[in-house]
Amino acid sequence: MATHHIDVRYVAELARLELTDAECEEFQPQLNAILSYAESLSKLDVEGIEPMAHPVPVHDVMREDIPRPGLDRDAVLANAPDQTQGQIRVPKVIADA
What we know:
Number of strands: 2
Largest sheet: 2 strands, antiparallel
Order of helices and strands: HHHEE
Number of helices: 3
CATH class of the domain at 8-42: Mainly Alpha
Distance between the termini: 46 Å
Helix content: 25-40%
């Protein structure tokens, strides 16, 4: 795979960024280095390696709800503008689909 040249000005335009000539000169070698590194990754032998979404297994990502010392639940609820059944009520922020 040949290294393709991508102009910094083109990328900046896609990102709606205004760059000076000095910034373009500074960022072009950095972009070329990133593209070169990505090309080197494509040369790795990954035969037999299963694709994965996470580098480590993700099981139960929910933590146990443990009260923090010094945090009084009743005091928090007493300061809430609207509460019901021991929970703080908040306005709906998602419109109906």
